[in-house]
Amino acid sequence: MAATPVFYLIPGLGADERVFRFLRLQGEVHVLRWLAPENAKEPLPHYAARLAAAVPAGQACWLVGVSFGGVLAQEVGRLRPRARVVLVSSFASPEELPWVAGLARATGLHRLLVPQLLALLPRVAQWFFSVGNGAEYELLKRIIRDTEPGFVRWAIAQLVQWPGGAPAPVARIHGTADRLLPAGAAHSTYRLPGGHFIIVSRADEISRILNQLGATETT
């Protein structure tokens, strides 16, 4: 008989537990909230080790990472061998990133990014995230408004420089119309209609997938 599943949920860049509000998971659920980087150059593995402190070392569990949270899930998974990683709207290697990320890696272009601009252009963010009008759009606007610019700059620098190489995730869930990470769908186990915000727009289907995975043996 499978043990009661334990889920650790890691939100996307700048987001928080609000993106998980529509999930209905059967088991023990924890959200790994973002920590403030120790400094602007804190290495991702060091940051992941601090995040992993909330996950008991010997615990069988599921690490569910959304977007940039998927990268952290993979890094935490290196440190917790009994954890299984599930990526949602994320990527498993830098080769899956859009070409502009490679350009940023080579030129340092990401350092010129002004995160505050996104809050001033919510309709642009709506298009990139493929978010509909109504409650989804309002949620996206609030998340962007509450995002700390310094954290965004640090996270984007880590994202474009991430070398990959983590153990392969158990499963991947991706939107077929994801504009931010379009290559992800081709590598995913589960392809759902929608864009980068499927953690909200397809919460019912994602809940069903995660509950099916969680019902399997975690030892």
From TrEMBL:
Domain AB hydrolase-1: 9-207
InterPro entries registered for this protein in UniProt: AB_hydrolase_1 (IPR000073), AB_hydrolase_fold (IPR029058)
Any GO molecular function: hydrolase activity
Domain of life: Bacteria
Sorted UniProt keywords: Hydrolase
Listed Pfam families: Abhydrolase_6
Protein name: Alpha/beta fold hydrolase
Annotated source species: Hymenobacter ruricola
